[in-house]
Amino acid sequence: MKRQLSICLSFILLMFAIPAMAQSMKVTGKILDAAGEPVIGAGVIELGTQNGVSSEVDGSYTITVSGPSAVLQVNSLGYQVTEIQVNGRRTIDVTLEEESSFLQETVVIGYGSQRKADVTSAVASVKAEDFNVGNISDAGDLIQGKVAGLTIANGSGDPSATSTIRLRGVISLEGSTSPLVLVDGIEGSLSTVAPESIESIDVLKDASAAAIYGTRGANGVIIITTKSAKRNENVKASYSGYASLTDFANTLEFMDADDIRAGHTDLEDKGHNTDWLGEITRTALTHSHNVNISGGMKNTTFYADATYRNRQGTIIDTYNKAMNVNAGVSHWLFNDILKLGVDIQNRSTESDIVSSSNVYHQAILRNPTEPVYNEDGSFYENFSATNYYNPVAYIKGRNGFRKNEQTRVTGTASLRPVKGWETTLKLAKVKSDSHTDTFRNEYDYSNIKNGYTGYATQSYSAYKQSLLELTSRYDAEFGKTGKHRFSALAGYSWQLDEDNSFSATNYNFPSYFFGSNNLSVGSALKEGKASMSSYRGESKLIGFFGRISYGYDNRYNVLVSVRHEGSSKFGANHKWGTFPSVSAGWNLHNENFMQDVSWLDVLKIRAGYGVTGVIPTDSYMSLTRYNYGGYFYKDGKWLPGMSIASNPNPDLKWEKSGEFNVGLDLQVLDSRLGLTVDYYAKTTRDMLYWYTVPTPPNLYDQTLANVGVMKNHGLEVAINATPVRTKDLQWDMTFTASTNSNKLVSLSNDLYETDNYQYNGGFGDISSARTHRLEVGKRVDLWYGLKSVGISEGGKWLIENPETGEAEEYTVSMDNNDKYCQVLGHALPDVYLGMNQSLKYKGWDLNLQFTGQFGAQILNENRVQYESYYFTQYNHLKSLLDAPYSDGNVLTRAMNSKQWTSAHLENGNFIKLKNASLGYTFNLKPNDYISSARVYVSGTNLFTITKYSGLDPELSNGDLMYFGHEYSSNYPPVRTFTLGVNLKF
Amino acid sequence: MKKSINIFMSAVAGLVLAGSCTNLDEHIFSQIASENYEFKDMDVEAMLSSVYENVHSVYTAMNGLTGIEEATDLWCVPSRLGIGWGKYYILLHKHTFSNGISHIRDFYSSSYAAITECNRMMEAEQIKANPVTYNQLRALRALMYYNLFDLLRNIPLDTQYDHPDGWMPVQAAPQETFDFIVKELTDLRGNCGDDNGYGVVNNATVNMLLAKMYLNYNAWFKKFGEAEDMSYYSKALAEADAVINSGLYSLASNYTDNFKDDISGSPEQILTFPFQYPYEYGLSFANLWLANSNRATYGFDSWATSGAGALSQFIESYDQDDQRLTDTWFWGQQVDAQGKEIPGCNYTIEFGDIDGAYEFEGARMRKYEIGTGSNGTYSDDLVIFRYADALMIKAECLLRLGQQEDLAADLVSQVRARNFKSNPAKAKVTAEQLKGGSCYKYGLRYNRNVQGKKDGVANEWITTDEGGDDIILGGLLDELAWEFVGECHRRQDLIRFKMTNGQNVYNGKSWFCKRAVKTVENIDDNVFPFHSTTLDGNPNLVQNPIRNVD
Question: If you measure CA to CA, which chain A residue comes closest to B16?
Fold first, then answer.
């Protein structure tokens, strides 16, 4: 009764209020950001009423307010909420201040983005303005040293080499250890698009973030977002280009011709004086050019860029030319209900077929008293030594190219029938074709040795990926100023990968004229010696996924996601797996009790748990596969035979990694000092590995199976600070550090019981010695071998007998002998550091990027091979003449084995100035031609502080078998100086 | 609006229900998967190759039985200065065994792969219906077990294909394994047919294998000083007689007729594995023995890096008139195919040191014909059992039994006859000669400072003079070496032949860098240790004793 009365009364009051509206007035204006660009969709509300509008695409708004004393509140995501007294004005332009960087940034979290303040898991984001500059080969170089826990190595000077990346330790023995790389939502690689096209790179580090990518997420996810245009944006064009000079940063010191003549090796003096490394190297020039054009109209945006880069290698005749095109257009229809988009990325590369590491290897081991050419001008060869050929002739003896072209076409249709609900259908096709053409001509050593007239190979491969992705997302805010923020996502993805390859080889051609362009005329084909092969394979990956996030009052955030995913690569009963995650964050700085702490901007605690999977690299591993390959003899004829390719394992299934992550974000003093700390603990179960299995009953002594358990845990710290911030001078620094501990928990289960250790590692060519041992309860990267403690009078290693502690003179029976082998250290660093210093003074900017690694021992393979008299036909390192121990004895020819010992393991600690750049941005008066111009110089690998005596302590090998090996075939690291320019028109 | 949403939702639902969007069937194109392919008779026959591939590897692989002859007094693979080799080959030569010798891993895994494939195929209906094929598989399986038993003795016995998940075999007692092999062969005896075509198991193969089982029984089972059970020599004799009396075989007129590209015409071969490059690769002896530059002699174009060399003591044991010396070995300056000297390609019989030998030290083997192009020895057929062996087994049994010793001498003389064409009188040997000592000059003989030369250190020859006088049936042991070098014979012979102190020659004598064992041996000292990988895979396996002579 009472209630009815009050409703009635209010109604009457409302009626009386109507005449008061006669005082209402119309206010118009524009909402702009600090740069003067319009802010679209900003909310303009008359404070204390339900009255509100939002700004148009040009930032304009029109609102009718109750009177001249009304107060307007303007809010927009990423900007501070602003209140303005109308004071009778009819036109009010509002410039919004950006929110503190921490809060305004959005991060890409997979199938969408999130305000950084709402993020509940370990996600790092690097924007274009923070990228490294200089001679950048791929996306990995852009963010090296910038993300704690992400190690990126590009240890090779090969112009075609790409970065190898690893996040948070080693979680798998057999599956991939590289993070999933997504380029605009589609699987790609760090080199799918040109570095110049990249807008931002986001790294999903922990499983609570990566679980939405299910089976591919266990090593983390790197999300590359390419540049695009905004609506109602003036058409812009820009050019950026650079030229670089590249040289070896350091080389090894081998015996020179005088040393040979002094008898320090077993090489014969052939009377010449040749600097072999000098003969095959040069100062290499790289130049790169990028043009991009972008703009937007009311309903259409477009973006296009093209990048051409021509890199020379430091080894003569090596090169890599790449042309990238990245273009996209989007169009909005039906009053923004439907958005259509088409994106095309094309990359074509061409490179040499010279095996740089072989050439380099031949140059360092070759006798420096031998000439390059004979007196008659032909190449000098000396085939009396094994695996020994003139490296200059090797380069000149092989013609050909390796071409690769990849095209990615993506079409998207987004339907937004009501505000907050968006459903997107994405269809994509990735086609990648490669063609390798090799011809060995008359200078080629193998042709000369075998007496062949020409040897040619043509190989083609085609890779195709088809992708369908359907996602539907609903975002809603309830309550006053979005007290409750809710977002839900559901999706389906279907991916088909198809591989085809073909290759043919023939030799003994009637003429060198044809090269590899007329394969059929070689006589080896007629003799049954030519070869031909083809392959076809496919795999499918299907996923259903969903995610719900909820935020309350900017204080509490939770996120729950799940992916149910299946792959054709697994056994019939184990095709599907489910990968859930849950995480939560608490923004303490928004709590009432923290409001008085004025120096604190952000204090946030995050915690999450998620499950991700690792997929085996190859298809068909669960099947009982038969190869037709061998032949068997029957009744005088050779008939094709068939044999089982590997032990089948119908129970093959997902390797699963469960990860717990807890993190803290802190920003103080006006965000001039920030700290992010994350701790994680991951457990990998059902670990895929080639387990040693009993024979019999198995046919082969190894089977790919899900057996082991491995644990990793670690800490990551990122600190950013701005010690100086004045009008003219700004000094920023970031510092990242990470550690990881690894432990192999088990190598057995009910079906596969194995001993608790397995030998691992080796040298390939140099020696049959093993180098690692996997042991349950220990880390996976343990060095295992002979511990040398000195050199005997007779010039052999003195080896410590671990049982007695006595030093014994080396004998061959100690090799791979458990009685003498012991754990000698570990191969992966304990601590990774990164540091960035950035200084801006007026138009000048200076950037220094350091990286460092600590705690690893590196096996210097060059010393194993060349600091020994064993290979009498090859040159040796000068250091062979030095005594490695304080006993003063040196190795003599009596040490007749290529055995490695602890003496070849070296402290791998280092700090490197990876990248330094100095730039100047011109202060241009407004003109019709150029809106901004910047020039810069940069250098990479400027110096390294290390005790390591090899070429480069920053190793890139990701193969568990060879952790910590600096391969003797490693091409030396390079140092690059770059001059570049960025122009905007 | 609502309508369009409905249409959209039903489209999604339809897609999901249609199933194509959840279909994860695997499509395989370049291999055959038994899960989604019905094998045809033709395919089943083709699977025989998977048995043969493994059987062949057991013998011909670099790490196979032919290579394991490195553990004997005939030849070795030293560490070649500036080239490589050595390592496991050195351990085999010096009898400093460890659990890391890859020869043993490869031999073990190929042998059991062959056995597993035999077990699998013998359960297939198409195979069971074909007695020739079935018996062939059964005999090959017995052959594999015979080798495993000889080298490793304490081995798992797996005779069926289907096992419960997680099944892991244990080692069978030696007697059990011996009885199994003998039973299998006894069942097959006389049921395999006299001639099933070239390269296929026949009755004489079964006889030969049984003969070997019986001949070695005492060496395998009798402890040091324990009396031999002579009845096994009689059993072996009966099997050898069965082969001889069949009248199907005779000696080839030339020794070399048995070691060529195609020996199907040799009347001597009983079981031969045919090989033909590029279909199926046989021995890689050409690659193992030839120096790189020596390839020009044969027009051989595959790799060759001067690995193996004959022990000088063995070369010296030959009679100069015995053609087998030069039919088997060569040394000295080599010439190319046009007769032009190859610079530097001059092999010495002298060998310095297994731990470091120069490229041209040691005589080289050409017993297996070295073909042109890529053929090398890949294309040579490999004889497993031949008639000469039946004659020698018979001779040995007679001498051991003390029966018809003159007949024994006559049989050996028959085998020798074709090898002394320039001096036929020398072909004849007497029982006394066969029963007497060995002419092999056993003892250490190496130059400890062979690589010291360049450092200015003088030679330091380490020699001991053990000789062969104290070897029982030493003359016969020598005959076996000259006749069967390179045929996976020697290790077994050295273990079977004893010295007067009761030790076998394998342990009791020194040669080159291999030292004699001074302690009284255990029968387990004659077997190899398992490789660590084999043990890792099956914790039920118990390691053989690891004897380390150093």
Answer: A492
B248 touches chain A (CB under 8 A): no
| Residue A825 structure tokens | 């250290």
Residue B170 touches partner A, C-beta closer than 8 Å: no
Farthest CA pair distance, chain A: 119
Write out residues 757-816 of A within 8 Å (CB-CB) of B: 757-759, 767-768, 770, 795, 811-813, 815-816
Reported ipTM: 0.83
Tokens representing A880? 């062979």
Return the HEC string of B395-452: HHHHHHHCCCHHHHHHHHHHHHHCCCCCCHHHHCCCHHHHHCCECCCCEEEEECCHHH
The answer, yes or no, to whether the previous bond of B278 is cis (omega within 30 of 0) is yes
Contact B164/A at CB under 8 A: no
pLDDT digits (tens, 9 = 90+) for B94-129: 998 888 888 999 999 999 999 999 999 898 888 888
Which residues on adjacent β-strands are paired with residue A118? none
The residue among A769, A747, A776, A773 whose CA lies nearest residue A760 is: A773
- A494 and B CB contact within 8 Å: yes
Q: CB of A753 within 8 Å of any CB in chain B?
A: yes
Residue ranges of A 46-105 with Cβ closer than 8 A to chain B: none
Using a CB-CB cut-off of 8 Å, the residues of chain A touching B454 are 263, 266, 893
A96 contacts: CB under 8 Å, gap ≥ 6: A31, A32, A33, A34, A39, A42, A74, A76, A79, A80, A82
The predicted structure's pLDDT at residue A649: 83
**Token pair belonging to B432:** 């006394």
pLDDT tens digits, one per residue of A843-871: 899 999 999 999 999 999 899 889 988 88
Q: What is the 3-state secondary structure (H, E, C) of A547-585?
A: EEEEEECCCEEEEEEEEEEEECCCCHHHCEEEEEEEEEE
Q: Alpha-carbon distance A231 to A40, whole Å?
A: 9
Q: Is the pLDDT of residue A127 over 90?
A: no
**Distance (Å, whole) CA A603 – CA A734:** 18
> Which residues of B are less than 8 Å from A386 in CB distance?
82-84, 292, 305
Query: Least CB-CB distance to A641: which of B26, B27, B50?
Result: B50
Least CB–CB distance from A896: residue in B31, B279, B451: B451
Phi first, then psi, for residue A515 (nearest 5°) are 60, -135
Contact residues, chain B, for A630 at CB < 8 Å: 49-50, 52-53, 280
In 3-state terms, what secondary structure has residue B59?
helix
Check residue A642 and give its pLDDT.
84
Q: Which of B237, B235, B236, B217 is nearest to B227 (CA)?
A: B217
Q: Are A571 and A650 in contact (CB under 8 A)?
A: yes
Confidence of residue A242 (pLDDT cuts 50, 70, 90): very high
Measure A626 CA to nearest chain B CA, in Å: 5
User: What distance lies between CA A6 and its chain's CA centroid?
Assistant: 66
- Tokens 């332009």 correspond to A93
In degrees and rounded to multiples of 5, residue A18 shows phi and psi of -55, -45
The DSSP call for residue B521 is P
> Which residue of chain A has the CA closest to B343?
A384
- A771: chain B residues, CB-CB within 8 Å: none
Out of B81, B86, B168, closest to residue A694 by CB:
B168
Nearest partner of A229 among A238, A217, A220, judged by Cα:
A238
Judged by a CB distance cut-off of 8 A, whether residue A889 touches chain B is no
